[in-house]
Model the fold of this input.
Amino acid sequence: MLPGVRPLQVPIGLRLSHTARVVSRAFDDALAASGGSVPIWLVLLNLKIQRPANQRQLAQAVGVREATLTHHLNAMETLGLVSRRRDPANHRVQQVELTEAGDALFVRLRQAAVEFDSRLRDGLSGSDLGSLDLLLARLAGNVGDDDAAAPAWEGLADTPRTLPRVSNDPPGRQPPSA
Done:
């Protein structure tokens, strides 16, 4: 860009980065008000919906390295939110489970997350939300996001990509072959 020449539009990356930062901070604040944080929420959420068999699978589900997860689990274990034990079949593998306190915090954080999501959806139609989902996926694709890993919230809700296809054809009619 030439000195003194302004772009005609604000670059998408700057707008997206700013929006993500604002929304992320607000979500952090909403979870903190309920006694949690995003890392704690993601661990609790995945223990509930994914039920990973061990700490390695939990790290993959949450989308962090095992060392990072270990740091979070140490803190969560100290708070009494999770318990870890060695797999009887393989003592090198740690299994992670929610405690009653972890389950109670999950319920509080789930409510905070639902209320926050409702705030985000305010004034957006179903069509707007569908377009937003597609646009965000396209932006990620445009920068080469070919990461096949599922997001940390995979399985939380059905999305257009996870819902089974439903035919609008009358019963007994075969759909046209492709």
About this structure: The two ends are 48 Å apart (CA to CA). Helices lie at 12-33, 38-49, 55-62, 66-78, 100-121, 126-142. The first strand starts at residue 82 and ends at 87.
